[in-house]
Specification:
With about 300 residues, this protein is α+β, with helices and mostly antiparallel strands. Helices cover about 55% and strands about 15% of the residues. It has a domain at about 200-300. The chain contains five helices and eight strands. Strand 3 (about 215-220) and strand 4 form a beta hairpin. It starts with a helix and ends with a strand. Residues about 25-35 have low confidence and may be disordered.
Length: about 300
């Protein structure tokens, strides 16, 4: 009986060994089969991802390149969410996406480099600054639109901060140049106006701007009888005074009435009016005239 039990035990042991051996062989076979299938799928997938990059390189249109990058980005995001993601495939996605993104970041950096002005705070060429500023503003808008496709949010913030600072400095410089130009224009206008203006304590005279350089005034003090001012314009066939002309202005104290002695005024004159401190102003013209052909007089 004991011998029979021993033989049965040996038989059962042999059967178990056979079963375990078969199971092991089957497991190894299945593992090898699955490994071969996975390897094949990995090669196919990585080859397709690489082909997408090859197509990207051949594409010349920037918008088309951006669409291809966006598409592969989305595909990669979806792949990472699956439970079948493989390290080799993930690396392939990342490598090719990095190269694709570099095309755009290289472009960003090129535009920044070309439009970053040395010593911009001293640059005087307003057009040069304006062009550089506009290019950076355009780039800034592009980067904002492409955030999440080309750059991460953090990378985009770095670009945005740098560009905003540069754009702000250009804006400030343009403002200073424009203020300087405005001041120069105002100064020129002031100087031009001065060339067409005369003033004393009794009256002021303005002549047309096209008379500048062709008119003059001479002052004569005849105290206590009064003051005499001789205005002349050299004619140059100008419509305002085609043959030139002149005028004499007399200023006398009229506190006690108009003077009658003829010491200062010896010819027929026209009274212009009275100043605020009661001086009478008279005028007489000669030739083509002076005030009758464009000049104006204002009493004080």
């Amino acid at each position: 009986m004991k011998k029979i039990l021993e033989e049965k035990r040996k038989l059962i042991t042999c059967i178990l060994i056979v079963i375990i051996t078969l199971a092991t062989i089957g497991g190894i076979y299945i593992y090898i089969y699955k490994s071969n299938v996975n390897e094949k799928e990995i090669k196919q997938l990585t080859a397709r991802i690489t082909s997408v990059y090859d197509d990207f390189e051949k594409t010349e249109n920037r918008n088309d390149k951006l669409k291809e990058l966006k598409s592969l980005n989305q595909e990669f995001d979806e792949y990472k969410k699956t439970d079948k993601s493989v390290k080799e495939v993930v690396i392939c996605y990342e490598d090719n996406l990095t190269k694709m993104k570099k095309y755009f970041t290289d472009e960003y950096n090129k535009i920044i480099g070309e439009n970053t002005l040395e010593n911009s705070d001293k640059e005087e060429d307003k057009n040069k600054i304006t062009v550089a500023k506009n290019n950076l503003v355009s780039l800034l808008e592009t980067i904002k639109k492409e955030t999440g496709i080309v750059c991460s949010k953090k990378e985009s913030e770095t670009y945005v901060n740098r560009l905003s600072e540069e754009i702000s400095s250009y804006t400030e410089r343009l403002k200073k140049i424009e203020e300087k130009e405005k001041a120069a224009i105002e100064q020129k206008e002031k100087e031009e106006k001065a060339k067409a203006h005369y003033e004393n304590e009794f009256f002021s005279v303005d002549v047309p701007s096209d008379w500048i350089g062709s008119w003059s005034v001479t002052e004569e003090d005849h105290s206590p009888d009064g003051f005499k001012y001789i205005f002349s314009y050299k004619g140059d066939n100008n419509i305002m005074a085609p043959s030139g002309g002149g005028a004499e202005i007399y200023v006398v104290d009229a506190t006690y009435g108009l003077p009658q002695n003829g010491k200062l005024i010896s010819s027929e004159c026209t009274i212009v009016g009275y100043t605020s401190n009661n001086f009478a102003v008279f005028m007489t013209e000669a030739g083509a005239g002076f005030f009758s052909h464009g000049a104006t007089i204002n009493l004080k």
